[in-house]
Design goal:
The structure is a single chain. By secondary structure, this protein is of the alpha/beta class. It has a single domain, classed as Rossmann fold. The strands form two sheets. A four-stranded parallel beta sheet has the order 1-6-5-2, sandwiched between helices. Helix 5 packs across helix 7.
Length: about 250
């Protein structure tokens, strides 16, 4: 008997993985079809950041005349502008917690798709040379099996056709869980936590190749993590940094 179709071993393996580990909705964690990223009922529950936006961090502001949110009006951020897709509320808190602590790596697919759709045009106006994820400490990466920010940045890189560089910015020290700290505590906790690998990427190369950087993280609350990463990048020779978070919190 002759067969016209050629069986691809990689596709067979992927199908076997999908059968054993079916995709689950990031909201309710029910099994969904392989071509879905979220179930219909949960898609309606995830709240997007609506315009108008704070010109600095990307939070929603009340009217077009308001350029900065209250938090950004009281601070002098070194990054140039920010973007965010989701409001960090109940369902997003659970979905993000599952991504970080319950091995729900597939949640990154949905987060990145929505971030590309809602923030993509504004990101292209910034015109970054590269995308960089906020790094996590090697011990935390070993625990989780991945860096959630890198999962998202890799997917955004493909969706927006912007090169990703995952080894320029590194985490020097393991810090306490930021969710337990106030704004001042977060800033103190993150001091000297990040640096650029100047042995791998000399300062002259960074200045020429990586002039404009889009920095990716999962959650933006006080902005302390983004600020510390931005300082490390600028000090290493990057000219300008914009930040994109999957979700952004309010009243911090």
């Amino acid at each position: 008997m002759m067969y016209n179709a050629i069986i691809n071993p990689k596709e067979l393996f992927k199908e076997a993985v999908r059968t054993v580990y079916p995709r689950k909705c990031p909201g309710c964690r029910d099994v969904i079809l392989p071509d879905m990223l979220v179930c219909e009922s949960c898609a309606a529950e995830f709240k997007l950041v609506e315009p108008p936006f704070c010109l600095k961090c990307g939070r929603h502001v009340e009217d077009e005349e308001t350029e900065l949110c209250d938090e950004c009006a009281s601070k002098d951020h070194r990054y140039s502008m920010g973007f965010s897709a989701f409001v960090y509320d109940g369902i997003m808190r659970r979905a993000m917690s599952d991504l970080k602590y319950s091995s729900a790596a597939e949640n990154a697919d949905y987060f990145a798709e929505i971030a590309a759709k809602t923030c993509g045009e504004r990101v292209k106006m910034f015109n970054p040379d590269i995308i960089i994820p906020v790094p996590i400490h090697p011990s935390r990466r070993a625990e989780r099996g991945y860096n959630q920010a890198q999962l998202i940045s890799d997917r955004l890189s493909a969706a927006l056709d912007i090169p990703s560089v995952n080894d320029l910015l590194i985490r020097r020290k393991k810090t306490a869980a930021l969710k337990r700290l106030d704004a001042a505590g977060r800033a103190e906790n993150l001091k000297q936590a990040f640096e650029c690998d100047l042995k791998r990427y000399p300062r002259e190369e960074i200045s020429v190749r990586f002039g404009r950087v889009l920095l990716i993280d999962d959650i933006y609350t006080t902005g302390a993590t983004m600020e510390c990463c931005t300082e490390a990048l600028l000090d290493a020779g990057v000219h300008e940094v914009a930040v994109l978070s999957v979700a952004i919190g309010y009243n911090y």
